[in-house]
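Re: the 154-residue chain
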Amino acid sequence: MSEMEAKKTAAVSPRHRARELAMQGIYQWRVSGSDAHDIEKQVLEAKALGRFDKGLFTKLLRGALAQHAETEALLTPHLDRPLADLSPVEFAVLLLGAYELSQHIETPYKVVINEAVELAKTFGGTDGHKYVNGVLDKLAPQVRAVEFAARSKT
C-alpha cells in the first residue's frame, strides 16, 4: 500500500472501511468464485488494512454471500440490464447495499445508500455511482416501507 493509500485508509471511519472490505470480498467472490469463508479468512489475515469494524465486516460479507440469491431477486426488478451484464464492481456494491438495506434496518436507509454511492465512486467506473444511487433509491421504499411511512408523517 502506498503512503497516500495508507493516509486515505486511516481517514475513513471503521464502519466505512468494513463496507469497503466487504464489497471487495463480494467482488472477489463474483470474479473468482472463491468460498466465502476463504475470502473472509484472507481479508482478516491481510496486513495494513487500517482500522475497521470487524464485526460489521463479517456480518456484511457472510450475510450478503449467504443470501445472494434472495438479494439478487430484490435487485433485479430495479435494474435496466441482466445481473450478469453489471460490472463486477457495480454488482458487488449493489449486492452489499441491497443486502444492508433489506437485512440491517438498524442503519438508516440514507446512510446505506450514501455508503454504497461512495464505494461506487471510489472503486467503480465514471458514472457507476449514479447507477447505484438510482437502483438503491428504487429499492429502499420497497424494503424499508416502515421507515418511509414514519418519514412521511413528520
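Residues 14-32 form the longest helix (19 residues).
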